[in-house]
Specification:
The structure is a single chain. The protein is α/β, with parallel strands linked by helices. The chain folds into 2 domains: 204 residues, 3-Layer(aba) Sandwich (Rossmann fold), CATH 3.40.50; 111 residues, Rossmann fold (3-Layer(aba) Sandwich), CATH 3.40.50. Helices cover 38% and strands 19% of the residues. The strands form 3 sheets. Strands 2, 3, 4, 5, 6, 7, 8 and 13 form an 8-stranded mixed beta sheet that branches. A 5-stranded mixed beta sheet has the order 10-12-11-14-15, sandwiched between helices. α3 packs across α4, α3 packs parallel to α9 and α5 packs parallel to α7.
Length: 395
Amino acid sequence: MSERISLLTTERAEEWLLKPGVYFMQGNIASAEAALIAGCRFFAGYPITPSNEIAEHMARRLPQIGGYFIQFEDEIASINAIIGAAYGGVKSMTATSGPGFSLMQEGIGLAAMIEAPVVIVDVQRAGPSTGIPTLVGQGDVMQAKWGSHGDYEIVAYLPNSVQEMFDLTIEAFNTAWEYRVPVIVLADQSVGQMIERLKVPPLDEIKVVERNAPTVPPEEYLPFDSRYLIPPMAVAGEGYRFHVTALTHDDRGYPSTSHEVSTKLVTRLVRKIRENEKVIGRYEAIALDDAELVIVAYGITSRSALRAVREARREGLKVGLFRPITAWPFPYWGLREAVDRGARILVVEINMGQMVRVVREHYSNLVDIYFMPWAPGSVPRPHDILLKVKEVYGG
C-alpha cells in the first residue's frame, strides 16, 4: 500500500488533480476535489444522505491517483480506519451527516487523545434522530464541540458556499496536520448539495501543509513529547518505536494513572488550540462599523441574513452581519468592537438554540442578545429575518 500511496508525490497524481479554472460544481463534489488537492489519499465511509456525493466521488477519483476508497460497515469503523491511516502517514478523511456523526464521537475523542490528524465532513440535515434526511439543518454545532467526553479541543469550519466547501476543506487538512487534531468541515445540506460557481486557483498557489516529522534519532523520539505544544509525528514504517493508546499516557505513550501526567497531557491538548485561537479562528464582518444591530448567522443561513441586512440598510436601519467561518474556536473577538459600541445582537440559526449559547456566554452581560430559532427542514428567507430585525429594532 505504501508504494501506491507514495504516488501522491508523483507527476501522475498531479496530472489527475482538478485543473485550475472556473467550474459549475456541487458543494459536496468541490469538497472531494479539494481533499485530493490537499493530499488526501484514503477515504473511509458509510453511505448517508446528504453527504453521499462525497463518498461516491471519492470512490471514483481516488483510484485514479493511487489512493484508496473503502466503504465500511458503519461510521464507527470509518472513523477508526482514517485514524489508523493517519498514523500510517496518509492524509485521510470521511464524510457523514448527523446520525453518522453521532456514531463517530468516540472515535473523534480517540483522535483528539492520540493527536491523529483526520478530517470529517459533516453535511448537516434536519434532526433529531432520522429527522428529514434530504433537508437542511444546523443542529450539530454543539455536537461538534462537545460530542465526545472529557476535555479536548477540535476545529470546525462553517462553509456558506461551494467556493468555501473547496477552500475550507483544504484548510481543514492543513489545520489537522499542523496541529495534530481532528478537524470538521461543518457544512449543511443546502451548501453541500447546491451547485454554483467555483474558481480553482493554480495548484502552486494553494498552501498544502505536510506532517512535522521527527528529526531526532529513533532512540531519542518521544511520540507525545510535552516539551512541544505540538509534538513531531512519526508514522508506521519509519523505524521509530512508539506506543499509542487512548488511555491517559506519558510522553512515551505509555498508560499512566499519575495526576501529574494527566495534567501535563490534557492541558497540552487544549492549549494547542486555545493558545492559537486567533490564528485558527476566522470570521466575516459586513457593515459593522456603524451597526446598531448585528445579525450573527453562519452556513446557508448567513446568505439569507446578508440579503436581509442589505434590505434593512435600504430602509435606513443600521444593521450589520457577523458570520463565523469557524464554529470552533468561536471567533468572539470579532464582535468586540460592535459590542463595546453598544450594538445589540440577533442570532439566527436553523436549530432551537446552539450558537446563541456561545454568543451569550461572551456578551450577555454587556448587550441585549436576541434569538430567532428556525426549525430544521427549510432555510429562513431574507424576508423572515427582516421581519425579526424590525421587531428587535423597534423594540
